Amino acid sequence: MKTSDLFVKALENEGVEYIYGIPGEENLDFLDSLQGSSIKLILTRHEQAAGFMAATYGRLTGKPGVCLSTLGPGATNFVTSAAYAQLGAMPMIMLAGQKPIRKSKQGRFQIVDVVGLMKPITKYSEQVVDGNNVPAMVRDAFRIAMEERPGAGYIELPEDIAEEDTDAQLFDVVGHRRPSADHKSIDAAVEMIQQAKLPLLLIGAGANRKLAGKMLRKFVDKTGIYFFNTQLGKGVIDERHSQYLGAAALSADDYLHCAIERADLIINVGHDVIEKPPFFMEKDGKKVIHINFFAAQIDDVYFPQLNVVGDISSSMWEISEKIKMPENLNFSYFQRVRDEVDSHITKYFEDDRFPILPQRLVNLLRQKLGDEDIVTLDNGVYKIWFARNYKCHAPNTMLLDNALATMGAGLPSAMAAKQIHPDRKVVSINGDGGFMMNSQELETAVRMGLDLVVIILNDSAYGMIKWKQEGVGFNEFGLDFENPDFVKYAESFGCHGYRAESDESFQSILDTALNSKGVHVIDVPVDYSLNHSILNVLLKESACII
Asked: Do 457 and 517 sit in the same domain of this protein?
């Protein structure tokens, strides 16, 4: 068969359901082979958005999402998506075409060394130079993308290789069980926890990936230990739990950091230094146990005294089985911190001033969405308010990026989430800046027949950087812009467009959008006037004298 036919069969062999992307002339043989396949091509309007969708598929399923582009500018548009998947530990495979490599038809026209370009930001980056190599390359790329830490892979298929004949055979997809941690490291962890006076559990992204919530819940219920999470660890344990302190949306100075400062041991499960630090270690400070699929990467703010390396669920099960907590532990201080956190994050939940406060938006969405419904966040200052104030009831019900922290991913990630979970409500939260970076995908969402709610927080500025600017005492400069009429803009793509004029009208619009078919785009003005006074001033002034 043709190499392109074999390539498609190799993807089917890996269980690929969708390919997101934009084909070019260098993909024509591959595209022709795809016609008779069980794999569905989702045509997007930009390769970056295709990559974000593929990465989100990987995040939610654990299997690599796949995206497709042509050579040159098409493939280079994948760079941000590759970094998004690689830093966020989302398994993804990028496929791209290339000019013939056995003889040149057009010199160096459009030819860029994309394989070399991708090597620093992927786990695998190779060009197919012989059709007989396709089965091994595809199997290897998928295996590597899924193995801890998950990440991105890139395969380039030149058009002359795609059309040549091959009689190569596919490999069986063979999985493996992740190894358990060494018993001595488990025993050492148990001893450190039992000797601690005020241990604290931190849940990071790695625990969310592998859905280790059941074993972590068993651990906190048995030990009485309080817990908090990173932004990417939200929802691993239901955040309504009585021992939940909150999310480390900031690296310091938030109310829950009072508990972190008082703790003498932090049990850090599933975190690595790719994510923004949830706390800073000091050389003469508290002890830290690192429990993950891989040993800790050491830097100035993170240098654990013990590594427990192996499958997270298995490690937490063994620790829970062996541990016997001292009876004289007193967690009353952590309880007071929890009460303090709750009193502050709910302070503006009922404040119906307009333009809307981000805290108010958080509360309204939490009231109107079910336990399994999904919120996706683009990147902006509102991400901090959602991470701090929105309590997730289940894993992967808030999709945000706290690794690359790129703008433009919020809408595509929501589209992939809705495609994977059509029975759940999905709401995409975007700043007006980030929304416009991939707003063309509204057409894709409509064409896919998705039922989706897209909220644009409109402040006609890059609000996150304005907040930072104010925080360091600089004058406002260079961050304001003008927006289109978002209602007309949405309607031009076949969406339902709305503009909220008051708190009451926003609630009415939101109810309609959440319970109607189609893509609903809501333009709502946002009030960020409290960002500086709370996040930069109040939190820094608050003393831990609870």
From this structure: yes
Residue 340, domain member (yes or no): no
User: Who's near 460: CB < 8 A, 6+ residues apart?
Assistant: 432, 480, 481, 482, 483
Beta bridge partners of 426: 374
Q: pLDDT digit string (tens) for 89-137?
A: 999 999 999 989 887 766 677 788 999 999 999 999 999 999 999 999 9
- Domain containing residue 326: 183-331
How far CA 295 is from CA of 122, 192, 291, 307, in Å, comes to: 20, 18, 8, 6
How much is the pLDDT for 33?
A: 97
Kindly report each contact of residues 467-473 with a partner whose C-beta sits within 8 Å and lies 24 or more positions away, as own/partner.
Answer: 467/381, 467/528, 467/531, 467/532, 467/535, 467/536, 470/531, 470/532, 470/536, 471/532, 471/535, 471/536
Q: For residue 24, what are its two tokens?
A: 């070019």
- CATH number assigned to the domain comprising residue 523: 3.40.50.970
In a domain, 19, yes or no: yes
Q: Are residues 325 and 353 in the same domain?
A: no
| Euclidean distance between CA atoms 235 and 224, whole angstroms | 19
DSSP annotation string for 243-266: TEEEE--SSSSSTTHHHHHH-SEE
In angstroms, the Cα distances linking 95 to 24, 137, 152, 181 are 12, 12, 11, 36
- pTM equals 0.95
Q: Are both 298 and 352 inside the same structural domain?
A: no
Which is nearest to 330 in space by CA: 196, 189, 188, 192?
196
